[in-house]
């Protein structure tokens, strides 16, 4: 069985966020324990497993995502990686619908090589855990927001881009917060001309100390920064060591996430599923 590693939200190898992708034959998923073991072996932020659904189903494919330690409800970069593999191998063309724990999601490949994900916009509500988060992050929190059940993250606004880039959080303290992970963000420093806001994502509670580029987090970043900056379409830079760019377009209850991807490993899973 083939397994691929794809760098998502980047146009060059060894940047963006790597994801494992396994396209399965039709039929039910293998047991959860098998999927989890493969994801632990791949040991990336997420490994995606997809299989085709029968005609008449709500979507063309079923899709699940696993970190090295648990299954997650929503994942952007591994969805982009899956769509990239499907389009570059001729498995699918145009728009693909996926049935997931986060609802039915669509991906659309453009002639220029970009892929756009149609995801639910995260509902932001002001949170009162900014003080606790600030202590864990080691930085002053300007505002904090809960991001709803699908994400389960805390979104934290910090003073400026430099603060986001140089942040060195206490990961053990972050893991004790009552959230899947913590998204930190700030407006881009003036004059860069490439992106509008920056972010980082820390998820030690789900086995991800720092995620290189978190597509799903941008469903919360998009409504925050579109409201602040007055534009529906923006570009976010996730300022991890690998970095990656995500173009976000806010459409009410849906957010479009656009990026590129590069396949860097194409191999064989010898144990099978």
UniProtKB/TrEMBL annotation:
Keywords: Isomerase. GO terms for molecular function: isomerase activity. It comes from Streptomyces carminius. GO terms for cellular component: cytoplasm. The lineage of its organism: Bacteria, Bacillati, Actinomycetota, Actinomycetes, Kitasatosporales. The active site is at 46. Belongs to the PhzF family. This is Oxidoreductase. It holds the Pfam family PhzC-PhzF. InterPro entries: Phenazine_PhzF-like. It comes from the Bacteria.
């Amino acid at each position: 069985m083939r397994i691929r590693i794809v760098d998502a939200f980047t146009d060059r190898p060894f940047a963006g966020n790597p994801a494992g992708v396994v396209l399965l034959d039709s039929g039910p998923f293998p047991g959860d324990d098998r999927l989890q073991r493969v994801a632990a072996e791949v040991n990336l932020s997420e490994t995606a497993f997809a299989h085709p659904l029968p005609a008449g189903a709500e979507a063309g494919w079923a899709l699940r995502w696993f970190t090295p330690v648990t299954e997650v409800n929503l994942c952007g970069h591994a969805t982009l990686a899956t769509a990239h593999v499907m389009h570059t191998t001729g498995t699918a063309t145009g728009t693909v619908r996926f049935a997931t724990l986060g609802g039915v999601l669509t991906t659309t490949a453009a002639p220029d090589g970009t892929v756009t994900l149609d995801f639910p916009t995260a509902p932001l509500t002001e949170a009162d855990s900014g003080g606790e988060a600030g202590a864990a992050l080691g930085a002053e929190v300007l505002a904090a927001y809960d991001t709803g059940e699908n994400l389960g993250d805390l979104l934290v606004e910090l003073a400026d881009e430099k603060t986001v880039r140089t942040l060195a959080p206490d990961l053990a303290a972050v893991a004790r917060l009552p959230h899947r992970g913590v998204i930190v963000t700030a407006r881009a420093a003036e004059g860069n001309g490439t992106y509008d806001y920056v972010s980082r994502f820390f998820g030690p509670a789900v086995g991800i100390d720092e995620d290189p580029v978190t597509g799903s987090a941008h469903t919360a970043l998009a409504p925050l920064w579109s409201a602040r900056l007055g534009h529906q379409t923006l570009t976010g830079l996730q300022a991890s060591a690998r970095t990656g760019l995500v173009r976000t377009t806010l459409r009410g209850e849906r957010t479009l996430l656009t990026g590129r991807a590069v396949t860097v490993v194409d191999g064989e899973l010898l144990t099978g599923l």
